[in-house]
Amino acid sequence: MSVSGGTYYEDVSPGTGALPPRAWSPGSDAARLDLGGIWRFRLSPDAAGTGDAFTADPDAFDDAGWNRIRVPGHWVLQGHGEYGSPAYTNVRYPFPVDPPRVPTENPTGDHRHVFDLPDNWPDEGEAVLRFEGVESCARVWLNGQELGVFQGSRLPHEFAVGALLRPRGNVLAVRVHQWSAGSYLEDQDMWWLPGIFREVTLLHRPEGAARDVSVRAGYEHATGTGVLRVDSEPGGRISVPELGIEAATGETVRVPVEPWTAETPRLYDAVLDTGGERVALRIGFRTVAIEDGVLKVNGRRILFRGVNRHEFHPETGRTVDADTMRRDLLLMKQHNINAVRTSHYPPHPAFLDLCDELGLWVIDECDLETHGFEEIGWRRNPVDDDRWTPALLDRAQRMVERDKNHASVVMWSLGNECGKGRGLTAMAAWIRERDPSRPLHYEGDWSCADVDVYSRMYPEHAEVEAIGQRKEAPLEDPALDARRRAMPFIMCEYAHAMGNGPGGLLEYQRLFETYERCQGGFVWEWIDHGLADERYGFAYGGDFGEEVHDGNFVCDGLVFPDRTPSPGLVEFKKVIEPVRIAPEGEGVRITNLHDFAGLGQLAFDVDGEALKVPELAPGESALVPLTAGAEVRTVRARLAADAAWAAAGHVVAWGQVPSSAQDAGRREDAPLVPPATADGRLTLGPGVFDAASGALLAVGGVPVTAPPRLDVWRAPTDNDEGPVWMPATTAAGQWLQLGLDRVQHRLDGVETGESGLTVRTRVAPAAVDAGLLVAYRWTATAGELRLTVSVEPDGEWPCSLPRLGIRLGVPAAFGDVRWYGGGPGEAYPDTRAAAMTGRWSKTVDELQTPYVRPQENGARIDVHWAELRDADRGGLRIEGSPPYYFTARRWTTEQLAAATHLPDLIPGDTVWLHLDHAQHGIGSRSCGPGVLPQYELTPEPAEFSFSFRSLPGS
Ligand code: IPT
Fold this sequence. Notes:
Pfam families: Bgal_small_N (PF02929), Glyco_hydro_2_C (PF02836), Glyco_hydro_2_N (PF02837), LacZ_4 (PF16353). This is Beta-galactosidase. Helix 5 (about 460-470) runs parallel beside helix 7 (about 505-515). It contains 11 helices and 59 strands. The protein is globular and about 100 Å long. It is mostly beta strands.
């Protein structure tokens, strides 16, 4: 290796030796050999690797002393730390920016695998060695012969190897460098994970096999005609038995078909026969077009209810097995998600087969991001430097050629966050020429010069509305402005799902439904990339000692790392329901919000009893009367029969109709009892107080381990804190500056009278004159203790409050909770669409939401009453007027705020109850807009009441 650079891994060109890209063809009947398994491995600290191990006689070389590694896999996730560690950065490169040079410390993994050909491997024909994905640069030898070098981690590379193969003892050697020129093009917000992380296969290529296959299957919606043309090299015959198609390649065939859509993913089995090879294909007929400023499929506007999906598994990183891919898609479909942006690289090719089969719209994004150049003013950005253009084109070609035959892929994306540049324009030009059937997407250049849709990330609702009205601020160039104003609008990223949240989803959805130009978006993102870790449960940036990292910004998904849905996903499912069920009078208005499907696949019921709903075409609605019921009635739309993605009975959408008779005459008015004082204790009905301080000590037999006190603090959420690059302006920044995490309670008076006890306090942080005057008024009947809290802001308040309520402690034994109100999951003012009114029960432990970085969580909304019980079934009942937010946990807010990982949360001997009159909204400020004004908790006079009763045990 030369020390002055200029090595192959620092070469900006696309590499050497690989065959031209082609479509992925899992349906071929040609022989194939999966080379995955346990390989020999040796890690070197620099790019020299293991010296001449791969160039010397491969048969003489003894690798017995080498380690073992699983292929596919990332070496940093194997070897228990012996093979280095994962590292996380969002935007910043974890090495000095001096393209295309990379650090001398360039971890290099030498992989060696000896394999035999199966006995039935054909003697005739060619063979190719195929790599689906290697990060970031590989140099390959087979039986001592060098095949070539490649970069482009999430893209396939093939080499012709027929002449080199022998029946037994083939020696495959792959040297993988963690860093290469390609690393500059792969600055996606994710873990840096080197290795051969996708399959390596040997594919037989018989005489006369198809070099490539290209399927074009359009749909003419006006006539219901499918238009099919299959090309291959060499040509052959294509048959689609179900459609009676028998045609030659290159021939265009027109037949009536059922179209493919994400809602109705109709695929037809086909076979291409080239003489040398038979290739099974699954064909979906559909046409994507932009007409009148609207993106349409098969002539109809579509709405993306999408997510950004990184490939991730908490144990294996970006090595994602087939079951996990399917699991992702089933979870998405079950949560009403209809679209995926493959952020920010082409996914494993099998994922797109599953999208075709299950029905998802896909924006397929190229493996390209140079975001770290923004940190240095975009100087030397590779996408604006002609020397890099061949590598960019190579990446575009490898994506388009591999994925071109998928019905699910409706748009190509040039990449993510690369700024602007001639290289992007060149990519766009090549893709347009090669595949005019799909629009182009790229967000990073707001002039949209190279693309067909106007795409943005994280705009505020107000801006989306202006764009929806085609009234956005103009571009300087009038021609570009007119062009962009005529484009459909999508948000390739919005609603940053980091920690608790995102808030404000519903308000976005209403904009998508109001303005035809606003065609939805893709929540950032699908999954938290927390790595399974013995120390932390799930690890995030910094947990591996990285010198530059971005902490838990890598945990911002709708599902936790183990793919348990987070409350954010449950909320998203409700907000994007394809059927709206809304109360209207004594009935429900049912609206079909599908883009293509009717309601035929759904069965409706009211609390389990079948409900007749007329067939509604997309966009239509009907008023369906309900017979009167006692409490709230719940109408559900369920799958009438098993679907490919969920069983019959699965709830797709729901709505509730509150009974107008509810709550009337609930409380019979028992006479109030006066207080009695003895031995420094004051007794008021079931309440026992400290007479001097007015602190509540017990309710009936239930000891109150920490007396009720006004509480305005919450453990800041990621959205409260906002992104690291703008802390002071965020809600949590303001709260901390004011000192809301350290308020003092000054006792101003304890007054006892005939009707009860009044305690007055002033609650305020040190050093400021803003405070809250609080009066706690206690009264009681023989069996019930009542509290009314009045709060009056005092002085100048510069910011919102995190919460407003009281907190108190009860013994740890009170571990079971039942409540009537919103549930079963957590909800906050702007994340409450999925809260269903009803009777719910959970343990205190189950009430916790396990955000990877602990933070405020677990509030239940609109709680009319909650009961806590111990094993003896004795307990405490707390009613609220008005209904309140109920939270119970085994640690304090201070402990929750101090925790950095879940194992830091250690249950104490108290269950802490938070009875909140109000909460500040959640918003999406961790990367995007904050809380909408209507969900801010502004300090203003407030009054709220609770009543407490002890519940007898068994
Ligand atoms: C945006 C990126 O495109 C995405 O990869 C991810 O980093 C996301 O933000 C935040 O999690 S870029 C952002 C700086 C607007």
